[in-house]
């Protein structure tokens, strides 16, 4: 029973103060989110149930291991047969080392020739399975 009522015919139906406050909070959030987002004003105490639209996302489709590029992808691991998102590591590739040699021969020494080793676009992408740790694919630049 709520603390302000003595009779059992309370307007809150004999609920505790906590239950009443929870019901009031739920009603407030319902009116706030529904009416503020739709732009409609509440009409008195009428509680009409609105149809609920359920939007479902399509299931992701795994790609073949050969089509992995610079970003992680959803694949079926050929080693452990789990559906996983590949773990990606970047390693300086042949293009980065060739540019380092070209820049060094052009006279850019003192560390400037090492800049291509840090450029992500010149690094090879190594994909591995996070479940078993085996290598899946290497995307060379």
From TrEMBL:
The chain crosses the membrane at residues 94-119. Its main location: membrane. One of its GO terms (molecular function) is zinc ion binding. Signal peptide: none annotated. InterPro entries: LITAF (IPR006629), LITAF_fam (IPR037519). GO terms for cellular component: cytoplasmic side of late endosome membrane; cytoplasmic side of lysosomal membrane; nucleus. It is found in: Endosome membrane; Late endosome membrane; Lysosome membrane. Belongs to the CDIP1/LITAF family. This is LITAF domain-containing protein. It comes from Oreochromis aureus (Israeli tilapia).
């Amino acid at each position: 029973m709520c603390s302000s009522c003595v009779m059992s015919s309370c307007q809150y139906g004999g609920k505790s103060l906590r239950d009443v406050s929870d019901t009031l909070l739920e009603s407030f959030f319902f009116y706030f989110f529904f009416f503020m987002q739709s732009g409609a004003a509440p009409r008195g105490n009428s509680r009409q149930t609105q149809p609920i639209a359920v939007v479902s996302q399509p299931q992701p489709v795994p790609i073949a291991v050969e089509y992995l590029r610079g970003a992680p992808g959803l694949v079926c691991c050929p080693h452990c047969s789990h559906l996983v998102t590949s773990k990606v590591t970047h390693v300086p590739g042949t293009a980065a080392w060739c540019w380092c040699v070209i820049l060094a021969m052009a006279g850019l020494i003192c560390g400037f020739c090492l800049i291509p080793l840090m450029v992500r676009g010149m690094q090879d992408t190594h994909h591995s399975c996070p479940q078993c740790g085996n290598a899946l694919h290497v995307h060379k630049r």
